[in-house]
User: Fold this.
Amino acid sequence: KAGVTQTPRYLIKTRGQQVTLSCSPISGHRSVSWYQQTPGQGLQFLFEYFSETQRNKGNFPGRFSGRQFSNSRSEMNVSTLELGDSALYLCASSWVAGGGYNEQFFGPGTRLTVL
Amino acid sequence: DAKTTQPPSMDCAEGRAANLPCNHSTISGNEYVYWYRQIHSQGPQYIIHGLKNNETNEMASLIITEDRKSSTLILPHATLRDTAVYYCIVRVANGGSQGNLIFGKGTKLSVKP
Assistant:
């Protein structure tokens, strides 16, 4: 079974631009979560989607948004990029079965550099 | 904020057992202890989780104290490939929300030949 895939793997943008990152979960997984990892703040939760609905959101400004499609693939968008948005963006998928915990499977991440 | 406390770093000799401690003194009765690890520049990888009984799988063992205020992850025969940052996370298992893992700083384990 293929793992979680994220595209692109590396991205360089300039301040003020916007960016869209993509995540394809493991086949059959319906929950997709996004995390930001920086040296200073570590791994921080951005948001979670399930069945095209945002179910949970971390403490990030509105410039960070996401969506999920009917095939469970997810995208996240960051508008008006700032230098501090440079980070590794990780996507994780899991199979949700009416509650309870299922391990999250993480993708390799997208390394975003903002110049 | 993370509800766990871990030493920032540890060393272990290759082939020996690596014992990684975690304090979670404010854990609630319905919260589980989870362990993930992150090898440099890769996404985190799930290792194991438990409520109050000791757990073992093909990767590791998890020992939880009787009062549940601390736990230890044991890698029985550490290899160089086990060099990673190990995260101990406490969260409620039920509730349907799969996201929102709260990661702390973790323990950087260095396995040395």
Q: What stands out?
A: Strands of chain B lie at 9-13, 18-23, 31-38, 45-50, 55-56, 61-64, 70-75, 84-92, 107-112.
